[in-house]
């Protein structure tokens, strides 16, 4: 444990073995876990509020959860596990609310083939999750020849009809957040960071990096009140990119699109032509073990479908997986907050096959990096999903006591090797 939140803290520096107040290590870690999960919920809740929607019960949960972690309030090992599951419920509500707000504002996503690579002319590269920011920027780029490119978690924007309608939305540059220092340096464009996972800039692009609103990074200029003029002016001042050879990647598989395929999917499952669905999803990180996820997808049997969301998709979304009688074998459902789409899809599959969630031929293989992934993990646990794989490393705040609970109650399994894990699942 590591706690230095009150003046009683050991040696005036930190309680690391046990709290002077009586808090034990497992309680401290469960409190940390709760705070991490609430940070994730707050990120999504913030975007909901930007789009004008809120849910009193989510706000109440955040207040209660934070109060619980105050000094000498709650040392119960059972209560804090329940609160973690409650955080999963609050995150379920907030992801659902955000999805509905996205659909209300930008339409429901439809499959899109996105051009990857530079096109001729001045450009702006937008990274992060904030679709409202992207929409405002696209509006303000109208009448200019500036091309707007997405990066990392902004890729799914191309699937939303009310964003894709803007001519300036040109394509995608780079992959997940981890390549930003190279991609931002390589392309001479103005850059906008809308949410988390923006790194302090390298000199090569510091003068053309902008953030906005709550996102502030040393060395970057801040856009206020959605006034993107300084960003657009910078893009024009920088001059044009040279066109390079383009490739494409697909995104935008919304719930309605997939449900329209439900009769065909049912037929293929009953005929044994689709054996299993894998949701391979989560964060990307520079950990060398992240190569697991590409290798996993490469080795998924040909009679299985891979669903994905969030930024670990860039590990494998350039693979050509083909289709099973017209059903694409790789379906990108969107951003990390679109985990709600995967959940709604799982519920629909339960109805389609008249099965319980854990009896579905669906295996979830997660990677986590930051606190939104922690909130999503707790959502899946709150829904009772068992037998999930998690990597590339186990959460450091979970000690043996906490891991035992997760293993015994949910059979949450650390990733091993792709081939061994696939064998375990497929039998
Ligand atoms: Fe130590 Fe307890 Fe104070 Fe934390 S709250 S610093 S564990 S005495
Ligand atoms: Fe990625 Fe940060 Fe987690 Fe939104 S952008 S999934 S890491």
Structure commentary:
- 46% of the residues are buried.
- The protein has a six-stranded parallel beta sheet with strand order 4-3-2-5-6-7.
- The two termini are 39 Å apart.
- 41% of the residues lie in helices and 15% in strands.
- The chain has 15 helices and 16 strands.
- The chain has 427 residues and is an alpha/beta fold.
- Bound molecules: iron/sulfur cluster (SF4) and FE4-S3 cluster.
SSE layout:
Blueprint: H1 25-50, H2 56-68, H3 77-106, E1 112-116, E2 123-127, H4 131-141, E3 147-151, H5 161-164, E4 169-172, H6 180-186, E5 190-193, H7 203-206, E6 209-212, E7 221-223, H8 229-238, E8 247-251, H9 255-260, H10 262-270, E9 276-282, H11 291-299, E10 304-308, E11 323-324, E12 327-328, E13 330-332, H12 339-353, E14 362-367, H13 371-382, E15 389-391, H14 400-410, E16 413-414, H15 418-426
Parallel strand pairs: 2-3, 2-5, 3-4, 5-6, 6-7, 9-10, 9-14, 10-13, 14-15, 15-16
Antiparallel strand pairs: 1-8, 11-12
Helix pairs in contact: 1-2, 1-3, 1-13, 2-3, 3-13, 11-15
